[in-house]
From TrEMBL:
Membrane-crossing residue ranges in chain numbering: 21-45
GO CC aspect terms: membrane
PANTHER family assigned: METALLO PHOSPHOESTERASE RELATED, METALLOPHOSPHOESTERASE 1
Keywords tagged on the record: Hydrolase, Manganese, Membrane, Metal-binding, Transmembrane, Transmembrane helix
Protein name per UniProt: Metallophosphoesterase 1
Lineage: Eukaryota, Metazoa, Chordata, Craniata, Vertebrata
Length: 141
C-alpha cells in the first residue's frame, strides 16, 4: 500500500502563522491609532490649557489673598449640520469630535459657566419646524 502525504506537515503552517501575526499586529496598530485620534488627543490638547492666575494687589503694593474668580468657557460658531446640507457621515464625525472636545474640556477645566456664542446651526432658514426641533434636541444633548 502506498502512503499518501497530504502536506499537513509543520513547514506548511509557518505562512499561516505569519499572516495571522501580521493581521494581529495590524489590528493592534489600527486600534491604537483610533484610540489616540478619537479619544486621547482631546485630553492631550486640553490638558495643556489652564486658568490664568489672578493676583490682586493692595493699595500699599503688597499682594493680598486671592478673591474668588469666575471660570468661564466660551463656545462659538459650532455650525452643526442639519438634514439638508452635508452627508450623514460628515455630520456624525463632526458632532462626535465636537462632543468629545467639549466634554473633555468640561471635565478637565471644570468651568463654572459656559457661554455659547455665534452660529450654532447651518440650516436654520431652510429647516422645517420638525427638523429644527430635532436639531435643537441634538444640540442640547
Amino acid at each position: 500500500m502506498a502512503m499518501i502525504e497530504l502536506g499537513f506537515g509543520r513547514q506548511n503552517f509557518h505562512p499561516l502563522k505569519r499572516k495571522s501575526s501580521l493581521l494581529l499586529k495590524l489590528i493592534a496598530v489600527v486600534f491604537a491609532v483610533l484610540l489616540f485620534c478619537e479619544f486621547l488627543i482631546y485630553y492631550l490638547a486640553i490638558f495643556q490649557c489652564n486658568w490664568p492666575e489672578v493676583k490682586t494687589t493692595a493699595s500699599d503694593g503688597e499682594q493680598t489673598t486671592r478673591e474668588p474668580v469666575l471660570k468661564a468657557m466660551f463656545l462659538a460658531d459650532t455650525h452643526l449640520l442639519g438634514e439638508f446640507l452635508g452627508h450623514w457621515l460628515d455630520k456624525l464625525r463632526r458632532e462626535w469630535q465636537m462632543e468629545r472636545a467639549f466634554q473633555t474640556a468640561l471635565w478637565l477645566l471644570q468651568p463654572e459657566v459656559v457661554f455659547i456664542l455665534g452660529d450654532i446651526f447651518d440650516e436654520g432658514k431652510w429647516s422645517t419646524p420638525e427638523a429644527w426641533a430635532d436639531d435643537v434636541e441634538r444640540f442640547q444633548k
